[in-house]
Design a protein that fits this description.
The protein has 2 domains: 115 residues, no CATH class; 115 residues, AF0625-like (Rossmann fold, 3-Layer(aba) Sandwich). 51% of the residues lie in helices and 16% in strands.
Length: 241
């Protein structure tokens, strides 16, 4: 099975270990992974800000970049969903809409791919810690990936999972929302940090770089002793503490 890695901007720049873990996981379960070097931003920041004309330029480039792929897998539910959004972006342009649809049906978030395509629930991971999991908005509400991450985490040896109170609440990042509405965003992430503290978890696990960056930044500023990790790192671990 051939898989093309859609690394995303945040994983490429800030969460390199998550990208590395994603590749190692896929290869362990028999996938041949390639990395199209011409990939860029998927256009989501521009799209969410209403600049659809500019988004189409990025979208066309990404459609062409991954046109050869058998499957496209990303360590980000938010960015994977943006590929799904291309179909509606090109409404009224049938040729591009058809190409967008073809990309949509073969694009998956990592945990979604492991569960739904590879039929893997136990990655053989071992990680001894007390942890909680943050559900990101785009991944759960738009992409519809809700149970896959939790199924996989339940099989990690040594990992004690604590349910995060109000886990479906937004962390306040929302891409450009955090920039346009900083005061509201700050209150939202403060509330998220409060709920994380209530779990007494040592590790906060997430599947979207934007959320991890936002929450992790607040935890660091508040000097909270909670480590932030991408789910790919946990699922690829071999006994780390």
């Amino acid at each position: 099975m051939k898989v093309s890695l859609f690394i995303t901007c945040l994983s490429d720049v800030f969460y390199v270990r998550a990208g590395k873990a994603t590749v190692e996981l896929l290869e362990r379960f028999g996938c041949e992974v390639d990395f199209p070097e011409t990939q860029t931003c998927c256009g989501q920041p521009a799209y969410n800000s209403g600049y659809h004309k500019d988004t189409k330029k990025a979208a066309k480039h990404m459609i062409q970049t991954f046109e050869h792929a058998e499957y496209v897998v990303s360590p980000s539910g938010s960015c994977a969903y943006m590929f799904h959004e291309y179909e509606s972006l090109f409404k009224g342009e049938p040729d591009w809409q058809e190409k967008a649809k073809a990309l949509k049906v073969k694009t998956y978030e990592l945990t979604q791919f492991l569960i739904d395509v590879l039929r893997i629930e136990d990655t053989g991971a071992e990680f001894h810690a007390k942890a909680t999991y943050h559900t990101s908005c785009h991944m759960t509400r738009l992409l519809g990936v809700k149970e896959a991450p939790l199924k996989l985490l339940r099989h990690v040896k040594g990992l004690e999972m604590i349910d995060l109170p109000n886990r479906h609440d937004c962390c306040g990042f929302g891409g450009t929302f955090a920039i346009k509405m900083p005061k509201i965003s700050e209150q939202m992430v403060n509330e998220k940090v409060q709920h994380i503290e209530e779990t007494e978890a040592e590790i906060l696990i997430g599947a979207d770089g934007g959320c991890l960056m936002n929450i992790g930044g607040r935890l660091t500023r508040e000097k909270k002793p909670v480590k932030v990790m991408h789910i790919a790192e946990i699922l690829n671990s071999r006994g780390e503490v």
